[in-house]
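dumping the sequnces here before i forget
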Amino acid sequence: MKVPYSWIKEFVDIDKSAEEVVERLNETGLEATVETFGEYIPNIITVKVLSVKKHPEKDRLYICEATDGNKTYQIITGADNVKNNSIVLLAKIGANIKGITIKERKFGSYTSDGMFLSLEELGLADNNVDGVWLLPPDTPVGVDGSKLLGLGEERLIEIDITPNRGDALSIKGLAREIGAIFNKKRKDKKTDIQILNKVIPNISLETDKCYRYRGIVINNVEIKPSPLEIQLKLIKSGQKPINNVVDITNYILLQEGQPLHAFDLDKIEGKITVRNAKDGEKFLALDGNEYSLKSNDIVIADENGVIALGGIIGGETTKVDENTKNILLEAANFDYISIRKTSKRLAITTESSYRFERGVDIESLPEAENKAVKMILEFAGNNSEVIGEKDIYPKPYQPKEIKLREKTVKRIIGIDIPKEEIADILNRLEIPTETTEDGTVSKIPAFRSYDLTREIDLVEEVGRLKGFNEIEESFPSIPINTDKNISYYKFENRTRDFFIDNGINEVITYSFVGEEIYKSLNLPLPDIEITNYLTTDFRFMRDNLAVSLIQVQKENLRHQIKDIAVFEIGEAFFSDFEEIRIGILLRGNFIKGYTFNKLGKLKFSTSEKWGFLEVKGLIESYLRLLGINNVELKYSEKTYLNQYESADIFVRGFNVGYFGKIHPEVADKVEIPKDTYIGELKLKYISRKLKENSLKDGYLYTYFKLKDTPTFKELPKYPSVKRDLAFEVDDTVSVEDIFRELENSSKLVEKVSLFDIYYLDENKKSVAVSVDFRDREKSLSDEEINREVESIVNKLKEKIKGLKLRG
Amino acid sequence: MGLKEDLLKLKEDAKKLIEEAKDKNSLDKIKVKFLGKKGEIKQVLKSLGKLPPEERKDIGKIANQIKEEIEGLLKDKLLYIKRIELERELKENRVDITLPSHWIETGHQHLITKTLQEIVDIFISMGFSVAEGPEIEREDYNFDMLNIPKDHPARDMQDTFFINKDGYVLRTHTSPVQIRTMLTEKPPIAIVAPGRVYRKDMDPTHTPMFHQIEGLLVDKDITYRDLKGTLQKFLQEVFGKNTRIRLRPSYFPFTEPSFEVDINCSICDGEGCRVCKGTGWLEILGSGMVDPNVFEAVGINPEEYSGFAFGLGVERIVMLKYRIPDIRLFYYGDMRFVKQF
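..and the predicted 3d for all of it:
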């Protein structure tokens, strides 16, 4: 809500600058800003139109004569709303309008001495302006237009309220707040109007969603433009003047915070009912749209159907227009939940619905409406009378009593505030409060009944008016932390550090994914779908990180970045759980090779490219870092990987992840290089050291201890002896089998390492290994080792079919 | 000329030759020439027998001295030549130390996790621990138990993503971790909870996914003053010792009283600029005293315990600190961006 500061000042005695007021409002809890209304534009003047005639040469142009009282101007305009005696704003030669300086201009053989202005050209309306701005007849002629409007002078205060402070959405509410802050009295005079009980409007209330409905009938109104002052206040508050009656309802809404609606009484058929809508009932609103209603909506209806959507918007069929003579002025109070639901469903937000959703003062309803009536009588009806009233208010407001204990204030805010001061603060806020033995007791007025319902709510009121900022800080004594979850946090940090240290860059991508990438990867769509997704690319919650990392790779390929090493730590989502994973994507060189020819000498270094064994090494050294030495790999069947160059990773029988090379067909489809490697590890499973899962509400809580504490083993006293052995085996025999058998074959075998593999023919290969022998009790003799080798080879021959010792 | 003179001349000859020698080979030849079995010293000494015995003794002595002297010179020269040769060899193999290195280039950490870590570490140092919760969250944890009832305008403050799983939403904030923690642990509770959150929004300052850190301290006698002290200390750690803070009363459903916390604008130093919209203050986080309704929802007696909670958006802090103009840059994974930091 944006309103002129001068309007607020009409209701509270305050001599502070707008800046000072805004600063204090912010400090006490209303987010406020201040700005100046428009910009002073020289050479604008009010003029009265003397004559309007069609341009003889140009279609759609008019030649007008206008006077400022002294001088007469000839103005050519395209606006067809200018009439004889219209008072308009004239931008004279030299005025600068929206960056363009007005000059004498010829239209055919006629010269224009300037330009009549619309609200839009003054920068006071966005668009949707019909022609020139016609000022009301009470506007003085020949005065500085900028001064008259207050351009560059009037201060506007804009308030952005939090949902709990509906009470501040009016001039009255702001005056109350400012009065409380600066300890100034609010000025308001009770309005007396004379109501004749000639015609009691026939209104019945048939819904419990309307808490009060008051209708007042006024006859013989004259619909015309509002006086200048009303129009200016509305314009400055960002509203468009329409006609006197409508303007007055808007004016009172801004000033008092009470939405009002005026019906053309003569367009209403018979009895008026306030009721719930019927499902499917149609309603043509003032915004020109037809809405289909539901039973939760509150409507005002006559015998022909819905004439207004209660608290939200009026109807087209009963709207006030220039022919209106008699009006029914409505002031009501509706259930905020209903209003909110209807407003959301139909996507209509109005000044009225905005206020009702946040709570309107039910007790001030008659006073606000009376103020409007008084203005209507003054500005719209020389011969008008208030001929009838009906106020339906089934359950009059009963103020709730709330006690506030001094000790509660102390316990929450941390300082002692005596009960007398508490009472003073609350009374300044117009919350009637008295002191009691241990604190205060307040009767909550209707305008704060929405947000002040508990003792704690009053604590906040006391604190914010006392000035939270001035209260000195202290430091809590925090219990010593022995929490296990810091360990998981450390675990994740250690994981991140490991991959970064190994040259891999961290990325964060959206958890959302689209259908397309899943199709390309031959994957079924993820379980979790967002029902109100933003775009189709953001429709699902990913169930793996590979899809996201491939998109990162593609993004970088667009920038000719072909070598890439990235990882992400994030959740994968499933219908009944989610799990944190690390995903990695690697492609190209991780060490670049060079060749330099200098002084006839060739120096070179080799490139290191990501390949299966490199990725395997990376993952193994990560797991070793965590104390996991026994990793088992099985060929993976991931749809998007090359099944002959990919592996699922098992630790103690648990599948903790996978890695491998992209499938060449998939690579072609998603347009990424075929030597791309992708992997994922289930971080939480690993961090839990593969203990049983404690899924709670689909969430795996983590408890992690980095490695078990190892205990010391005595260092070997005797040397080890190395022997190289080469075996001929069938190609189907895996190297791991040979290693395992070797390691199990003798307790003297300390370590086995591979040094060569080559193929003898299609089905046979030679596997050469180095075996370290060591006896912890003594030095081994050649003879002993020879015997051991012979025995090992024999054992191997038994276990592995077709194995032969070579050489 | 006598023998002595001959010997001294030999010594001078040898000395000169050794000086001139350029390699080991020449030295070997010199050695043979002078000291060999048929070498010149031997030759001179052949006529030794003709001398009287007392002279013989003297000459013999001189001859030995000269022999030793030549041997010494040869040895020194050999060492010298070896050193020269090594030097030449090393020089030939000189490495251009300006060549590009040949090793793994360390990766780059994402600014968001880096900042999250910095923040969490500050709170750990104050004694807080780390809590966590799922991103697909129970609707009641995300809203109702945080005192955000259905059909309350407060639900509009955060535009929620709904999913095909009844009773669950993408969490709109990290605050439900408060609920999870208080349901499973008894006070005193001191936790921070970093993580991803989701809201339906997309423009240069909003992405539908972003990061928050939630903090919660619950104990007996926790007051607003503790909230102020803790946040002041934290913000001074992040933004510098001279950072001033301002608490503006505001509204969050799960705290009462609630505060927006501002710091003085680091860009214009409080003078007023585009970033702080001329106010001299930057809004950094939301906070407040835990609302009694929240305590009641998790079964903690609000008459016995009190506490404060806060939540801050990490992206905003990172953008301010590193002057990043567009929040979406965080999520493309564009290496040209990632490798800048």
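The two ends of chain B are 87 Å apart (CA to CA).
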